[in-house]
Amino acid sequence: MLKINGKTKLVGIMGYPLEHTLSPIFHNAAFNYLDLNWCYIPIPVEEKFFDKAKEGIRVIKNFVGVNITMPYKEKVLPCLDEISSYAQVIGAVNTIHIVDNGRLVGYNTDGRGFLTALSQDGGFNPKNKNVLIIGAGGASRAVAVSLALSGIKKLKILNRTLDKAEAIRSKIISNFACEVEIFNFQSNLENCFSSIDLIVNATPVGMVKEEYPFPVELISREHFVCDLIYEPLETPLIRAAKEKGAKTLNGLNMLLYQGAAAFKIWTHIDPPIEVMRKALEDALELKKN
Q: What are phi and psi of 19, to 5 degrees?
């Protein structure tokens, strides 16, 4: 049982809205398991108050760090005193560590979380593989950079508009020896999906009843299909891929591992991964029922 007192160290998640965040559940389960006097809280902040809020965490004595989520992963960059080289390449921060009486140090654990899930839970090694990422937002950028670091051979990016996809392409080719092609949904999608080993959905399509803007029949048993969505655990894309005989991975483990990496940054303690995983699974099961 968490005990809150004047010595409790605080961490949390800042974004808007936050009604559905699961981060407090698995972080607090870890603190409780390790008997740490820490507490993880949601910090919902509307955009008009964001600048005041980030200064607030800087001066609150017990605050150790925050996760940053939509819509602030990019907006937070100018507010930081130091940014890890990895987060600089991605151009987004999802974890802040507050050190030295108020200095804000930014990290990005999204890509690390994705790669850990892909290798440990998916059994997939991306080195020398061809990858298709659907979407060109912040999650797509983190995944693209992490895969480029892992030595993929070729990256294809499929997005509604080409400008955001081009921004990721430019970032990748200027930092890595990786071939990159971009497509929109009016492109020849058979060419887009051909010779692909890994497909990653980095869009919110699948969280709600919205038609996929690409034909799922292009998926085959030769593909490994990863959907970054974790609620529902089985999106229509994952279900369609399973029906085709493809191996699949949902976004739950990426959420878990990116959170575990933030936990280690803040506490300098190895996180109890299985405790955190069970807390997540129990929370999702409860919501489903």
A: -60, -30
- Identical fold between 9-108+253-288 and 111-250: yes
- Treating both helix axes as pointing N-terminal to C-terminal, what angle do 273-288 and 252-267 enclose, rounded to 10 degrees? 140
**Which of 73, 129, 156, 171 is labelled catalytic?**
73
Name the CATH superfamily for 9-108+253-288: Leucine Dehydrogenase, chain A, domain 1 (3.40.50.10860)
User: In CATH terms, is domain 111-250 a member of 3.40.50.12780?
Assistant: no
The sign of the CA dihedral 8, 11, 16, 21 is negative
Say whether 73 is catalytic.
Answer: yes
61-120 per-position pLDDT tens digit: 899 999 999 889 989 999 999 999 999 999 889 999 999 889 999 999 999 999 999 999
Q: Where are the domains of the chain?
A: 9-108+253-288, 111-250
208 pLDDT tier (thresholds 50, 70, 90) = low
pLDDT for the residue numbered 54 = 83
